[in-house]
Structure formats: C-alpha cells, structure tokens
Amino acid sequence: MPRSIVALIVVLVVVVALLFGLSRLSHEKPLKHVEKAVPLANLQK
Predict the structure, then answer these.
(1) Residue 39: C-alpha distances to residues 7, 25, 32, 43, 45 (Å)
(2) Which string of b and e fits 5-40 if b means at least 16 CB within 10 Å?
(3) Left if phi > 0, otherwise alpha if psi is -120 to 50, otherwise beta: which for 30?
(4) Across the chain, which distance is largest between two alpha carbons, in Å?
(5) DSSP collapsed to 3 states, the chain
C-alpha cells in the first residue's frame, strides 16, 4: 500500500477513536432533590 493511504487510514482511526472517547465523556448527572429549611422571617417579606 502507498504511504498516503496508510497515513489516511491511521488518521481516520485516530479521529474515530477520539470522537468515540468524547461521546463517552458527556453524560448527564441525575438531578437531586434538595430541601432546605426556610426561616419564617424570610417568608413574611
């Protein structure tokens, strides 16, 4: 095989591997319900 074809195949494999790796990184975190006590004085404004 000519070197240009081998280099192109290597570049394509690296790009596909990078895209796959980046797609695995971004996952949404589940939301947590947080309850906070609110003082009554803050509600009377």
Answers:
(1) 67, 41, 22, 7, 11
(2) eeeeeeeeeeeeeeeeeeeeeeeeeeeeeeeeeeee
(3) beta
(4) 80
(5) CCHHHHHHHHHHHHHHHHHHHHHHHCCCCCCCCCCCCCCHHHHCC
- pTM here? 0.54
Provide the token pair at 6. 């081998």
Q: Which two tokens stand for residue 17?
A: 């591997």
- Residue 24 CB partners (closer than 8 Å, separation 6+): none
What is the model's pLDDT at position 42?
67
Express each pLDDT in 6-30 by its tens digit: 999 999 999 999 999 988 887 777 8
What's the token pair of residue 11? Answer: 């570049």
